[in-house]
Amino acid sequence: MSNDLIPRIKTLILEGLHLDELSPADLDPDVPLFGDGGLGLDSVDALELVMELERQFGVQLQDDQASREVLRSVRSIAAWVEAQGAG
User: Fold this and answer.
1) How far is residue 82 from each of residues 21, 56, 57, 58, 61, measured CA to CA in Å?
2) Partners of 34 in the beta sheet?
């Protein structure tokens, strides 16, 4: 995986979702982004995150099931973006 992709995605998440109280260093790439015990994002955040990924990397998530898997963590997003040939 590209060395700069994870930091880029961390920044995209924090800036795109206006999570100003966190820094990229605070965001573990393997922590769940949604639900309890993770970052605690919700469905509105998911929609905004998908739009940011589309805008920044030119990729598209087509269905809800794929979105859930891809948006699981920073690392899963980075792996998917790289697999799409973007980034």
Assistant:
1) 28, 13, 10, 12, 14
2) 41
User: Which residue ranges in the chain fall short of pLDDT 70?
Assistant: 1-2, 87
Residue 10 CA: distances (Å) to CA of 47, 63, 76: 16, 23, 12
Kindly report, residue by residue over 67-85, the tens digit of the pLDDT: 889 999 999 999 999 998 8
Q: Name the nearest CA neighbour of 86 among 45, 77, 17.
A: 77
Are the C-beta atoms of 81 and 53 separated by less than 8 Å?
Answer: yes
Domain ranges of the chain: 5-17+31-83
Task: Quote the CA–CA distance of 74 and 10 in Å, as a whole number.
Answer: 7
CATH of domain 5-17+31-83: 1.10.1200
pTM of the model: 0.90
Torsion sign over Cα 30, 36, 41, 44: positive
